[in-house]
Write a structure and sequence with these properties.
Layout lengths: L1 H15 L5 E2 L2 E4 L8 E5 L19 E4 L8 E2 L17 E2 L18 E16 L3 E7 L6 E6 L5 E12 L3 E19 L4 E5 L11 E3 L5 E23 L2 E24 L2 E26 L10 E26 L3 E27 L5 E14 L11 E13 L1
Antiparallel strand pairs: 1-6, 2-3, 3-4, 4-5, 7-10, 7-20, 8-9, 8-12, 10-11, 11-14, 12-13, 14-15, 15-16, 16-17, 17-18, 18-19, 19-20
């Protein structure tokens, strides 16, 4: 009888066991995280089930990023108050043992390359240590007086473009190109006893132009500046708290050429002076950029926008060849020519300060617009009439780009 009673208790216990429903993977929206907006995906048993210390732990909540740049699955914290059973989000029950396929449970990290491209209209005004167009000497008074007449420069537009690829970890390889060109001119007509000279002497034996001497003599001068840079670099995006930064470096080729031309008359006889120099070099370039978002931190969430303050610094050191040539014509006519070639080093420093607006499209592409102040300093670039001295380019830029 005792045996039958024991068996009855066992049978009764088995009958009391019910098959517990298990919740499947379900989605519910969350606030944007520091990485990208996505959805929680959670797998758990019903509230009636109380696991023992030997049972498997509750499945971790996984994060399914929306950005094409962050397509791997990263575990994050459980929702607040989830452990107290206060979450009432949507769920779907299925019978234990059914198989449900969910790609977000796969541990595979999906790598992909995206395209990054940008174009800018840069408005710059050149400045020089010394860029005198011509000197005027007044010999009608004693002692004689000399006046310097500089080339006037205005703001000129210049293109700047970049194109490359970027992976989902923020590692990028890009090609960047920038070009600038400007011209200027100045001149005067002489009264009696006025003499005109080159702004800077040439390397010929005559040293340049000498015009004027009688009323009606004149001088006309012009200058031309052309330069460009070509970069091939690697960069890495890094985030520090609320700062988004980019560090990189690579190879740079740069070229700058400048010409000077003066022509006029000396007591009615034609005179002229032409000079020019060019530098072509190769070297290394390094750069850093920092962005500080205002308000919304996440700039990778679909259908959102944000504004950031930006600053960037770039520096390059170049080594190459410098060529110089000059030709002066004086009454006679007499022609004097000079040509030189030498090794030379040159450095370029660049600073940019401004603001950037980011727009994340529903496709996941990031489109940005930037307005900034730009400054460039070409140390050792010289001026139109001289290889010595520095060149500055100051102004602003409007840029548009895409990261997809």
């Amino acid at each position: 009888m005792r045996t039958n009673g024991f068996v009855g208790l066992i049978i009764a216990g088995i009958c009391c066991i019910s098959v517990q429903p298990v919740y499947s993977q379900s989605d519910f929206p969350i606030e944007p995280s520091n990485e990208s907006e996505g959805v929680f995906r959670i797998s758990n048993v019903s509230d009636e089930y109380a696991p023992s210390e030997y049972d498997p732990a509750i499945d971790a909540v996984s994060f399914a990023p929306s950005s094409p740049r962050t397509s791997d699955v990263s575990p994050i914290a459980m929702p607040e108050n989830y452990a107290q059973g206060e979450y009432y989000g949507p769920v779907e029950e299925y019978t234990q043992g059914d198989w449900i396929e969910d790609p977000y449970l796969d541990d595979t990290v999906y790598e992909r390359l995206g395209i990054v491209a940008g174009a800018a209209a840069v408005f710059l005004k050149p400045g020089f240590d010394s860029d005198t167009a011509f000197l005027t000497e007044n010999q009608s008074v004693m002692p004689t007086t000399t006046t310097s007449n500089d080339f006037p420069y205005n703001y000129q537009s210049a293109p700047r473009i970049n194109l490359g690829v970027i992976d989902n970890e923020g590692l990028s390889a890009q090609v960047r190109w920038f070009q600038f060109e400007d011209n200027s001119s100045n001149g005067a007509t002489a009264p009696n006893n006025f003499i005109f000279f080159n702004g800077l002497p040439t390397k010929t034996v005559t040293g340049g132009l000498r015009a004027g001497g009688m009323a009606g003599d004149f001088v006309s001068t012009s200058s031309n500046l052309k330069l460009y840079t070509l970069d091939i670099d690697l960069s890495q995006e890094l985030n520090f708290e609320r700062w988004q930064t980019t560090f990189g470096g690579g190879y740079r080729h740069a070229s700058v050429s400048q010409t000077y031309r003066a022509m006029g008359t000396a007591s009615g006889a034609p005179v002229s002076s032409d000079a020019g120099h060019r530098f072509d070099g190769d070297g290394l370039v390094v750069f850093a950029e920092a962005r500080r978002p205002l308000g919304l931190f996440d700039r990778r969430s679909k259908g959102t926008s944000s504004v950031s303050l930006i600053s960037s610094l770039k520096y390059s050191a170049l080594w190459g060849n410098s060529k110089y040539s000059a030709e002066d014509r004086t009454p006679g006519p007499t022609v004097a020519i000079a040509q030189t070639q030498s090794k030379k080093s040159l450095s370029i420093a660049e600073i940019q300060l401004g603001a950037q607006a980011d727009f994340v499209l529903q496709t996941g592409a990031l489109v940005w617009v930037r307005v900034a102040w730009d400054g460039m300093w070409w140390n050792g670039a010289g001026s139109s009439a001289s290889e010595s001295g520095d060149l500055s380019l100051l102004g602003g830029s409007i840029s548009i780009g895409m990261d997809w």
